[in-house]
Each structure stands twice: as structure tokens, then as C-alpha cells.
Design a protein that fits this description.
alpha/beta, six-stranded parallel beta sheet, two-stranded antiparallel ribbon, about 30% helix
Length: about 200
């Protein structure tokens, strides 16, 4: 990487957090687009994953919990020439923002969505997210999750999403390639990225 998208922002992620791999993948994918910094907008909501845009030297919109997708759709409608990417966590997108996830797929808004799927609300520590497995326990869920996990990829496919992929934070090169394909896809594109919460 050339460092074109580097910032001096110091994040507060835990050592070994999967967000570091995702950050590297995002920067690699953005460099591969050949776009200038001002042509890209990273949008996020609330949570550990939502801090990622501050580490990338592009336009950033950090919105309310669960509301990254409507903000991104509005940005894309206001300026269709921009490359608009949402990068946020599984709780933010599939929980509080679940309704927006469904309807942005249905409307086929031309944005790429990168979901950091660690199966937990990482900012509040120990709170299960919509993708937590049945039986999962944590500091705030001592008896185990009763319901099964929300299946984001199956839901996206059932709704007719034209680009659905799954990456892994431990393989930033592979994930960057998926991200680049999603950015280039003409319509709504989902990349769900599995990542450990350490």
C-alpha cells in the first residue's frame, strides 16, 4: 500500500482485534479502485467496528446506532458519483439497523456494505448480537442465548441481493478482493466479515 489513505487517528481496539485485519483490507481495496480520497465516503454507526472510518483518509459520516444505511443511501442519492461504503458491526447493522438492511437490499441502493461480524456487541462487551449462536454466554448473557442466530447471508439472498459474500478478518488479502468486487458491483453489495472478538 502507498499510504494514500493513512491517518494519525489512534483507535482503542484491543490488541489482536479482527478490526485491524478489516482495516487493512479496506485500505487495500480502496487503493485498488484508483479513486481519489474525496471520491469516497465511509459511513458507520455506533460500536467498535464503526470507529474504522476514522482511520481512513476519506470523507466520513458517523451516524446514529443502526442508522448507517439510510445515511449512506441519502449520500448516494445526493451525489451518485461518490463511492459510498458502509462499514459497521453485526449489532449495528443486523440489530438496530435490521429494518434498513432489509429495505436497502430491496431498493438495490448502489452502496457496498462491509459488516464486521464478531457475534457480540464489542463496545459493551459480553452482550450477544443478532448473529450470536444459541447457547452463547457472556457477561450480560449468563444463561446462554435462547434463539438461534440471524442468518444475514441467507436473508440477503432470499431478498434478491445481487452480491453476497463472506470474508474473514484473518485473511485481509482475500477479504480485500471481496471488498473490491463489492465496490465495483452496480447495486447493493454485502460482504459479511467473520472476525474474532478477543
Amino acid at each position: 500500500m502507498t499510504g494514500k489513505y493513512e491517518t494519525d487517528f489512534e483507535n482503542a481496539w484491543c490488541p489482536g482485534c479482527g478490526n485491524f485485519g478489516i482495516l487493512n483490507a479496506v485500505k487495500t481495496a480502496l487503493e485498488a479502485t484508483g479513486k481519489e480520497n474525496h471520491e469516497i465516503v465511509l459511513v458507520s454507526g455506533i460500536g467498535q467496528a464503526a470507529k474504522l472510518p476514522h482511520s481512513v483518509d476519506v470523507n466520513v459520516f458517523n451516524g446514529l446506532h443502526g442508522r448507517a444505511l439510510p445515511a449512506a443511501a441519502a449520500i448516494k442519492m445526493a451525489n451518485p458519483g461518490l463511492t459510498v461504503i458502509v462499514t459497521s458491526g453485526d449489532g449495528d447493522i443486523y440489530g438496530e439497523g435490521g429494518n434498513h438492511f432489509l429495505h436497502n437490499i430491496r431498493r438495490n441502493v448502489d452502496i457496498a456494505l462491509f459488516v464486521h461480524d464478531n457475534q457480540v456487541y464489542g463496545l459493551t462487551k459480553g452482550q450477544p448480537s443478532p448473529t450470536s449462536d444459541a447457547g452463547w454466554t457472556g457477561a450480560l448473557q449468563r444463561t446462554g442465548v435462547i434463539s438461534g442466530p440471524f442468518p444475514p447471508l441467507a436473508v440477503a439472498l432470499a431478498l434478491g441481493c445481487g452480491f453476497v459474500a463472506r470474508g474473514y478478518a484473518g485473511d485481509p488479502e482475500f477479504t480485500a478482493d471481496l471488498m473490491l468486487q463489492a465496490i465495483r458491483f452496480p447495486g447493493f453489495a454485502l460482504v459479511d466479515i467473520l472476525q474474532p472478538c478477543v
